[in-house]
Structures are given as structure tokens and as C-alpha cells.
Amino acid sequence: MKVTIIGGGGRVGSNAAFALQCAGIVSEIQILDYNTDLAEGEALDLLHGASVVGGQRIYAGDYARAADSDVFVITAGLRRKPDESRLDLINRNVTLFDGILTSIKDAGFRSDALIFVVSNPVDILTQLAATRLGLPTSQVLGLGTMLDTARFRSLIAAQIDQSPAQVKALILGEHGDSMVPIWSSATCAGLPLEKFPGFNASLQTQLFTRAKTSGAEVIRRKGGAGWAVGLTIAEVVHAIALNRQELLPVSSVQNGCYGLRNVSISVPTIVGRKGVIKHVEVPLWPKEQQGLQASAQALRTTWSNLKV
User: Fold this and answer.
1) Residue 149: how many other CB atoms lie within 10 Å
2) CATH number at residue 202
3) Catalytic, out of 48, 175, 238, 279
4) Rounded Cα gap, residues 91 and 281, in angstroms
5) For the Lactate/malate dehydrogenase N-terminal domain, which residue ranges apply (predicted)?
6) pTM of the predicted structure, to 2 decimals
7) Does 249 lie in the same domain as 170?
8) Is 175 a catalytic residue?
9) Which of 76, 128, 145, 159 could be joined to 171 by an S-S link, Cβ 3.0–4.6 Å?
10) How wide is the angle at C-alpha 53 spanned by C-alphas 51 and 55, nearest 5°?
11) One domain for residues 33 and 122
């Protein structure tokens, strides 16, 4: 499988490339960036380690060379400021993102290629990609609440002193201020979290608040997220490459799940080689369903005001 990372010279793109390289699953990684020197440097640095791990072909290229890619991972975008919501990025990022989509189209990409959006605001840009490229919505997906979910699980595990890999919990909805924690199905090693000492409603609120604000915290402390988002990007790409049919909280245009339509938002989604295989309507508490509907409405409002 050939993966092209657009914006691969930046922190998120380069960390994603490193995560993909370490796993050794995809066979070819192309780094594409408007800063060609930076792209060449990142590709060369990764190439220097290729003999140690997966042995993939890794190089910097352009849109013409990207045309035969199986997956386009779009990480390019302007960085969010510490006090700026992801949705506030939209007017600053849409023009840049639209230019990327035009370049992909002009290069003559494969009809079965998948477009995987990471740039923020990811839900809006995922819907824009689906609209602009004219692909079936199953072939366009966004990172959505994958990173939020990973943060959520890790913070829960640290609080109850358990392995993060044993915590199963989801955040759905917008990747942003209206995201929704799904406590109704959250478990650790198959046990409800309430079984663990000290786990109560107050602690739930603290953990979700920390997860929700973690992005801004990382930006404030080190300038921007990289390693965790790189790993979650790799998780989605590997689900595609290996056709895992894995249930993931990615963002995609909805066609009826939870009554949602014509909005790109994260719901439980089966992901495989063809992209979005299907959406899964897992049972939710009424307040979780209400939160998901409110999150969708916030995104619809932004979409309706979009100027492109």
C-alpha cells in the first residue's frame, strides 16, 4: 500500500510517517509538503532508518508522483492557537485545504483512492473533501475523535492505575468543544469503571475535562501535538491496509446513523480497505444521544456559514 502524507514536513505529518515506518505495514510512504526542502529532509531522515525497521520505500515527491496512492493523508494546515477552538480555524484553513483538493484532482488520482483528513477543523474539512472530490462518502474519512478517544482512555487508565490498552471508552461527535464522552459503555478489562475504587461522577467530569482540553495543554507546553496524533493516524491507516474491519470513532458524512444526515461527525464506524464500511449505532444513554445531536447541530451551523 502506498500512502502519501500531504503536509508531511510538519510535526503531525512527520510523526505519522514515523509511526507508519515503525509498524512496517504499508510498503511506500511519500512525504509531500509546500516546503520541498523540509519534505526532502524528513524523507531522508526516515530513509536512513529504513533498513532497521520495515524496509519501506520512503521519499519526498509531488502531486504527480502521488497520483497512484492508495491513501492520501492530509495533515497540512495552520496551527491552532492555545485559546482558539478548532472551529475558529475554519476561515484560515479552508482556502489552503481547497487548494490541496484541487491539486489532488488535477493530478488524476485513482478512483478507488481513500482521502484521510487530519487537518483541523477536521469534521468540516472532511465534509468539504467529500463535496469537492465527488467521491463516494465511504472513501473520505477524517481522524475525528480518534485522538480524543486515545487521550480519554489513557487518562482513565492513569487514574485507576490500570493498563491503557485495557480501557475501552469512546468520545464521539465533533473533534472540538461539543465532543461527547460515552460513559455508558466504558470499561476496563471488561469491568464497568464504577467497579474501581474512587471512580464516581465527579471524577468522570474531571477526566473528560482533562481529555477535552488536552490539545490546548499540549500546544501550550510544547507547541503542538505530534506523537499521539501520529499513532492514531497510523491506527486508521493500518485498519485500511490490513482490512481489519475495525470499529473506530472516525469522522465521515452521515447517512442516517442516530438520525444524522449530511454532516461529517464521529460515530462508531467500521473501517477497512474500502474506507468506511458502515456506521454502527451502539446503544447510548439519552443524555449521550442528546449531546451527539447538539454536536451535529454545531457542525451544521458552521457548515452553513462556510464561504468557499
Assistant:
1) 23
2) 3.90.110.10
3) 175
4) 32
5) 1-142
6) 0.95
7) yes
8) yes
9) 145
10) 55
11) yes
